[in-house]
Amino acid sequence: MNSYFSVLYYRRQHYFSDLLNILDTAVTVIILLVDVVYIFFDVKFLKDIPRWTRLFQLLRLIILIRIFHLAHLKRQLGKLIRRLVSGNKR
């Protein structure tokens, strides 16, 4: 759902120009498809699917950690820019 709203907000070209957004959307779609197949179809070869979904959820967790790290770096960069601009005024 988050990917869908992000695509609507940022436009398709801008959103998919970032590799992290592409990876996040792919992982989300794969998890959704695997869950739908697992819920609606009773097939014997699908018994290992819950393991695969855990792997993709781990990937999402790694992406989420990276996003928080980037947000932290953005705050630090903002502080440095304000300090640089205030230093130039003197």
TrEMBL record:
The chain crosses the membrane at residues 20-41, 53-73. The keyword Membrane applies. GO terms for cellular component: membrane. It is a multi-pass membrane protein. It is found in: Membrane. Keywords: Membrane, Transmembrane, Transmembrane helix. Its main location: membrane. This is Ion transport domain-containing protein. It comes from Pan paniscus.
